[in-house]
Specification:
Number of strands: 0
Structural class: mainly alpha
Shape: globular
Largest sheet: none
Distance between the termini: 20 Å
Order of helices and strands: HHHHHHHHH
Radius of gyration: 16 Å
Length: 162
Amino acid sequence: MAETLATFFVELFKDKIPAELTVFVISLFPILELRGSMIAARLLEMDFLRAFIISYIGNMIPIPFILLFIKKIFEFLRRYSFFEKIITKLEAKTQRNREKVLRYKSWGLLIFVAVPLPGTGGWTGALMAALLGVDFKRSLGIIALGVLIAGVIMSLVTYGIF
């Protein structure tokens, strides 16, 4: 799925904006995040280190905002019935993973963010941390490390090392 979406965005932005900006924009999106942006970088034949730095920064930019404001955003959006199902689904996903994160504490959140599987990553990790009441500084550091680890794994796969 990430490869399909990354390819779509590469084709959409191709020859319209610089490759670096394409990779940065893709890294900001939930679901795609750094993983999708590294696929896009490879498709755009970008230098690995430049692509990784841009992807990592882009993936991390939304995280503090999610940690700080998602509860207030959900509270505001619940006023509109359209968003109720989406919010309920996101909260249910958090609850399904609650025991793992709470049992293993920091390690649980780190592993959840670091393992590059569908439905995991910085956005979801930040949502979980915020909804479970994990301390801001602690969760930001854990998520930053998890995104870094996931990025290294995805980069090794995407750039053909494995």
